[in-house]
Amino acid sequence: MMPVGLLAAFCVAMSLLAVAKLALTERRRPVDVGATLLVVAITAFVLLWRELEGGVRLSPRVAFWFLAGSSCAAVGAGLLLRE
Question: Which of 11, 14, 27, 35 is 20 to 30 A off residue 42, Cα-Cα?
């Protein structure tokens, strides 16, 4: 597996843990939701990087990872800055 693939696997695992922790928490604060969204955004950008390293320049998957990462990062940063 390439180094980007290892990083992607690690990020996916961390995203799953963050989302599971958030789902199991009874009291969700906006800071917790924002931090989880930033972890998911980083994962989306790493998966985008993995797609681009494979030689794909523009495809629906590349657009999806870009939009998912950008929107999660914007909402997550907004929630963190609001606190």
Answer: 27
